[in-house]
């Protein structure tokens, strides 16, 4: 069972200009909203951004590169989460001329936008170059959103490459739960928003993959006499609300949606997670994998 938290908040955003007749462009990222100090152990890698390291951002970027090639066309689960998130735009009477879409399910958000929010300029950003390239190529084939000026940038949510007070809308669908500094990423989003801007995000909730978590724990205890982390820590509903408040948002709201997906075997579940780029990226992960013990007929998350 997967619990997706939809987090939304009014505050502020940023602008990236591109003329309507220009071809789609991919920008490399610089950091405009945050300190550009990088990890002292590796000053050449701009993606290892947070002092508190829970996730291996280098490895996660590689997983996103792989997911760009494995991604399912029109994934039912991803599309459902993206559709529910974008429905919030229909509840708002104001327009959002300039919008930023962060990581996660970029392709689904762009494809399902369908004119909602009266968006005129859309910035698509991901840490993975291959994912950005995939979204760019897919956008060139889409005639439904041809009136939206779209730019593509490679950037990190932990070092948001957007100017302050320049956006009307920030959307993140299933991406922010992989950041080492989630409050910091939300603060950067708030700083990038214009006054009365809107922040919309969906992250995986704390009960996600509960059945898989239990199966992995029991199996590893039987075989090795101990356990290692296999599923990342995820926020509970109370945590999500506190994060919005801590980031300085006003009028925060949190919804919880539960989705049950059934698979013929655990291998189908694992392949789906790989195609979504949602496999283990913990720094303390065990390199040895134990998938052969998952022989149950159905695994739900």
TrEMBL record:
Keywords: Methyltransferase, Transferase. The keyword Methyltransferase applies. One of its GO terms (cellular component) is mitochondrion. Residues 107-200 form the Methyltransferase type domain. InterPro entries: Malonyl-ACP_OMT, Methyltransf_11, SAM-dependent_MTases_sf. GO terms for biological process: methylation; mitochondrial respiratory chain complex I assembly. Signal peptide: none annotated. Pfam families: Methyltransf_11 (PF08241). One of its GO terms (molecular function) is S-adenosylmethionine-dependent methyltransferase activity. This is Methyltransferase type 11 domain-containing protein. It comes from Carpinus fangiana. The lineage of its organism: Eukaryota, Viridiplantae, Streptophyta, Embryophyta, Tracheophyta.
């Amino acid at each position: 069972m997967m619990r997706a938290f939809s987090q939304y908040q009014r505050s502020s955003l940023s602008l990236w200009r591109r003329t309507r007749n220009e071809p789609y462009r991919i920008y490399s990222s610089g950091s405009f909203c945050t300190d550009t100090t990088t990890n002292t152990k590796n000053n050449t890698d701009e993606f290892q951004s947070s002092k508190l390291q829970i996730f291996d951002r280098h490895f996660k970027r590689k997983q996103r590169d792989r997911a760009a090639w494995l991604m399912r066309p029109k994934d039912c689960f991803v599309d459902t989460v993206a559709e529910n998130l974008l429905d919030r735009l229909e509840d708002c009477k104001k327009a959002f001329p300039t919008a930023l879409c962060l990581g996660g399910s970029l392709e689904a958000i762009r494809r399902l936008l369908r004119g909602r929010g009266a968006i005129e300029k859309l910035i698509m950003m991901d840490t993975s170059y291959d994912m950005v390239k995939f979204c760019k190529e897919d956008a060139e084939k889409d005639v439904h959103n041809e009136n939206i000026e779209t730019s593509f940038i490679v950037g990190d949510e932990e070092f948001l490459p957007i100017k302050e007070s320049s956006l009307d809308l920030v959307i993140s669908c299933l991406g922010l739960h992989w950041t080492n500094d989630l409050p910091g990423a939300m603060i950067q989003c708030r700083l990038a928003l214009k006054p009365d801007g809107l922040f919309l995000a969906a992250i995986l909730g704390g009960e996600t993959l509960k059945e898989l978590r239990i199966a992995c724990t029991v199996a590893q205890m039987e075989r090795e006499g101990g356990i290692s982390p296999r599923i990342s820590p995820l926020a509970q509903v109370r945590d999500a609300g506190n994060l919005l408040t801590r980031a300085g948002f006003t009028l925060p709201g949190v919804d919880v949606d539960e989705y049950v997906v059934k698979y013929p075997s655990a291998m189908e579940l694992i392949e789906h997670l790989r195609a979504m780029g949602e496999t283990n990226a913990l720094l303390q992960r065990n390199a040895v994998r134990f998938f052969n013990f998952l022989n149950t007929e159905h695994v739900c998350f």
